[in-house]
Amino acid sequence: MSESKEATPPPVGSHATPEVTALLLATFADLYRQKVGAEEDVHRTLPFFGTALGIVIASLAYAAGRLPKWPDLPADKGNYAFDAAAALLTLAVLEAACVLVWISFAIARRNYERIGPEADMLARVEELQSYYDNQGKTAAARSADML
Questions:
Q1: What pTM did the predictor assign?
Q2: Average pLDDT across the chain, whole number
Q3: Each residue of 107-116: b (16+ CB within 10 Å) or e?
Q4: Please, which residues have CB within 8 angstroms of residue 12's CB and are 6 or more apart in sequence?
Q5: What sign for the dihedral angle of Cα 107, 110, 112, 113?
Q6: 100, pLDDT greater than 70
Q7: With helix as H, strand as E and coil as C, how does 40-61 read?
Q8: Rounded to the nearest 10 degrees, how much is the dihedral formed by the CA atoms of 100, 102, 106, 112?
Q9: Any idea which of 24-28, 32-36, 114-118, 119-123 has the lowest mean pLDDT?
Q10: Residue 1's pLDDT is what?
Q11: For 16, which of 20, 43, 103, 127 could close a Cys bridge (C-beta 3.0–4.6 Å)?
Q12: Using alpha carbons only, what angle is made at residue 131 by residues 127 and 137, rounded to the nearest 5 degrees?
């Protein structure tokens, strides 16, 4: 038995024209390039950021070394000044540690990720398709509206 398999023509108005397809492909390619560029920008700025953070840590170490020893402090006012300076210095060291943790998260390698969850993108495309199908316009008319 030989059955001839004829390709069923697509429904009229359900496919985008080549111009619209090219526009969409260019848009998504540009979005992907921007995402990759943003990830590369992080790596380009690391030397400058690292230098600035090194200067901050060095100045914190210098400031910590300049604090007077506990027995050398005069009575109450000296203790209050020492406590305030030590608290601020501790906060600055914690901040520098947090910055190092966050920068390590920023430079960690990641696998390729789509711009959004695939199921959500497909649902949105189907919504748009049904919206435009319900308008009763042909594919050429829709393409003309987009271009």
A1: 0.40
A2: 76
A3: eeeeeeeeee
A4: 138, 139
A5: negative
A6: yes
A7: HHHHHHHHHHHHHHHHHHHHHH
A8: 130
A9: 114-118
A10: 47
A11: 20
A12: 140
Band of the pLDDT at 69, cuts 50, 70, 90? Answer: confident
What's the average model confidence in pLDDT over 5-33?
70
Could you tell me where the DSSP H helices lie in 67-117?
76-107
Query: Percent helix, strand and coil across the chain, each rounded to 5?
Result: 75, 0, 25
The DSSP secondary-structure symbol of 70 reads G
Contact 141, 16 (CB under 8 A): no
What pLDDT was estimated at residue 96?
84
Structure token digits, residue 49: 């950021």
Q: Read off the tokens for 9.
A: 């023509």
- Residue 15 CA to residue 21 CA, distance in Å, equals 9
Q: How far is CA 62 from the centre of its chain?
A: 36
In angstroms, the CA 85 to CA 77 distance is: 12
Rounded-to-integer distance, Cα 147 and Cα 14, Å: 17
- For 21-42, b/e burial (b = at least 16 CB within 10 A) is eeeeeeeeeeeeeeeeeeeeee
